[in-house]
């Protein structure tokens, strides 16, 4: 019986129905846990407990609370096993565990759901070799959910090697992680978000890499766990690497050709210009040498690029290991507000980006007014470590990134003189960046969807997420977007525009001019029309 293998995806799913009347707490709950923990997650839809009007008090509120947290809303076992779908070369590799450094896994959380938090903890415990895992350090960043108080303490006290630390005030993820790190006894710090699940074999490649190269900061490949169905989407092939756009939002990029050539095998770590931020391992000693984190950053955002720039500019190396996979839940909405992105990012830009920080400010005008606080200590750190310039970083580490020109007077919002409240606006759809039309929207002065750049190649660029160039599709009268040609390659006629002194925006290929107009419903929009410089609707101006 034990030898027989089943193809689980071909089997029907089941609901387990358990009726009870005045059953003892422990036998009842042991039944439930036993079902959850011995059933493959893909087969077990749910456990339905039917209370046949018991009159024992412990089967009332207490059971409900317990059930709410672990059974009914959390249909997926806290102990579910993720299949090892990594490359065969990764699965075949054997490690001499006694030669690897030990690690402390640090997980900061704020108001996280019970099941995602505990599934993370169990997943770490159950997929990490005991000799390598010193401890799991949970840092509660002053959550206010009641189930994260005594109940969590009770639960965690029954788990081996798990410590629960509470911050005294809301610290934000940077300082919360650092509080956790102070309790770490392992040689390597491994940071995870509080809604992750590890693929078997995830830890050894990270630790081995750091054992070989102390200045390596290594990230696992981040797989997606669907926030709704909790399905685990493993991507065994070549992963994406971390980059950014000039608003300084993190972006995924495909591995550039020069990096493909440099690597000798599919299982070599891949150099990555930036990290997503949540999941990485670093030697504790090296992390301290590097200046840990910028503790002036609050709540969320910015620290990932700051650490990435710092690692590269100060002599470290940032990598993604294709043999280490960890899943992450990308929720629809975070359980907290995130107002600190611009302020944190301005700190990163001020300390590390030199003159290139202007590209960030141009795209985020409100960031210029952010009071980002004192930076003298971080600037001293940069000097003390003898770090390289941002120019060096771009040329050496990230040569595939397009650097904007931002010629004075030729970037920002493009105002219509005809409908004076309106600016050109492009609302890039999330999963299809070129899938919209350029339109008009009330000028808001926040950059974002209204930031355009007119280049010396005569392109009108929109460069959030990726570099997009305005075009007029053949025989059409609207303005669309397409991916810009790579730096140095030929420029198709269709994306050439003459933004003239008189304020007209002429498109030679269609021989038409950009014109503002109102739709029959009264909405402001743009259209390509026969040129007429006396028509105010054809006049445009970059904001001053
Ligand atoms: O005030 C806070 N205190 C906390 O302890 C706010 C957050 N946190 C915790 C939180 O509970 C979680 O464990 O910090 C962790 C990260 O917060 P998330 O999960 O809300 O962030 P995210 O996954 O949306 O965002 C990504 O970018 C962040 C920038 O600050 C962090 O670097 C996150 O760690 C990072 N997540 C990842 O890299 C996972 C992959 C996402 C991608 C791409
Ligand atoms: Mn996260």
TrEMBL record:
EC number: 2.4.1.-
A family per Pfam: Glycos_transf_2
Pathway: Protein modification; protein glycosylation
Alphabetized Gene3D superfamilies for the sequence: 2.80.10.50, Spore Coat Polysaccharide Biosynthesis Protein SpsA, Chain A
Example of a GO biological process term: protein O-linked glycosylation via N-acetyl-galactosamine
GO MF annotations, alphabetized: carbohydrate binding; metal ion binding; polypeptide N-acetylgalactosaminyltransferase activity
Class of this enzyme: transferase
Subcellular location(s) per record: Golgi apparatus membrane
Cofactor(s) the record lists: Mn(2+)
Record organism: Python bivittatus (Burmese python)
GO cellular component terms attached to this protein's record: Golgi membrane
Keywords: Disulfide bond, Glycoprotein, Glycosyltransferase, Golgi apparatus, Lectin, Manganese, Membrane, Metal-binding, Signal-anchor, Transferase, Transmembrane, Transmembrane helix
Protein name from the UniProt record: Polypeptide N-acetylgalactosaminyltransferase
């Amino acid at each position: 019986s034990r030898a027989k293998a089943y193809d689980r995806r071909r089997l029907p799913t089941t609901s387990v129905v358990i009726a009870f009347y005045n059953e003892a707490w422990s036998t009842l709950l042991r039944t439930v846990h036993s079902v959850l923990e011995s059933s493959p997650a893909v087969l077990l839809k749910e456990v339905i407990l039917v209370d046949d009007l018991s009159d024992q008090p412990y089967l009332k509120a207490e059971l409900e609370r317990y059930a709410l947290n672990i059974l009914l809303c959390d249909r997926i076992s806290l102990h579910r096993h993720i299949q090892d779908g990594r490359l065969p070369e990764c699965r075949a590799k054997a490690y001499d565990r006694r030669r690897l450094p030990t690690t402390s896994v640090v997980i900061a959380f704020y108001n996280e759901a019970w099941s995602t938090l505990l599934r993370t903890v169990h997943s770490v415990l159950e997929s990490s070799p005991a000799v390598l895992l010193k401890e799991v350090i949970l840092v509660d960043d002053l959550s206010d959910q009641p189930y994260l108080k005594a109940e969590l303490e009770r639960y965690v006290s029954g788990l081996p090697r798990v410590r629960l630390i509470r911050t005294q005030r809301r610290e934000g993820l940077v300082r919360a992680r650092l509080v956790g790190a102070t309790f770490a006894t392992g040689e390597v710090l491994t940071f995870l978000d509080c809604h992750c699940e590890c693929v078997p074999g995830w830890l050894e490649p990270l630790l081995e890499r750091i054992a070989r190269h102390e200045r390596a900061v290594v990230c696992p490949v981040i797989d997606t766990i669907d926030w709704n169905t909790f399905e685990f989407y493993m991507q065994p092939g070549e992963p994406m690497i971390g980059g950014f756009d000039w608003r300084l939002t993190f972006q995924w990029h495909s591995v550039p050709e020069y990096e493909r050539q440099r690597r000798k095998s599919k299982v070599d770590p891949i150099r990555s210009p930036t990290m997503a931020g949540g999941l990485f391992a670093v030697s504790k000693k090296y992390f301290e040498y590097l200046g840990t984190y910028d503790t002036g950053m609050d709540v969320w955002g910015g620290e990932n690029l700051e650490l990435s720039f710092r690692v590269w500019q100060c002599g470290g190396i940032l990598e993604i290991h294709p043999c280490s996979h960890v899943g992450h839940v990308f929720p629809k909405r975070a359980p907290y507000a995130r107002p600190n992105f611009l302020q944190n990012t301005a700190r990163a830009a001020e300390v590390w980006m030199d003159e290139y920080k202007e590209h960030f400010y141009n795209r985020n005008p409100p960031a210029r007014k952010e009071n980002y606080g004192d930076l003298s200590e971080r600037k001293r750190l940069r000097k003390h470590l003898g770090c390289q310039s941002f120019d060096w970083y771009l040329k050496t580490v990230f040569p595939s990134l397009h650097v904007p020109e931002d010629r004075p007077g030729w970037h920002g919002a493009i105002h219509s003189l005809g409908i004076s409240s309106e600016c050109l606006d492009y609302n890039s759809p999330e999963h299809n960046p070129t899938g919209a039309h350029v339109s008009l929207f009330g000028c808001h002065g926040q950059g974002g969807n209204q930031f355009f750049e007119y280049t010396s190649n005569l392109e009108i660029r929109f460069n959030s997420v990726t570099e997009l160039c305005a075009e007029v599709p053949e025989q059409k009268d609207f303005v669309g977007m397409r991916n810009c040609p790579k730096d140095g390659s030929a420029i198709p006629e269709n994306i050439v525009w003459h933004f003239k002194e008189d304020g007209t925006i002429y498109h030679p290929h269609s021989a038409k001019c950009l014109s503002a107009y109102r739709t029959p419903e009264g909405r402001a929009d743009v259209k390509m029309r026969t040129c007429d410089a006396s028509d105010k609707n054809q006049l445009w101006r970059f904001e001053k």
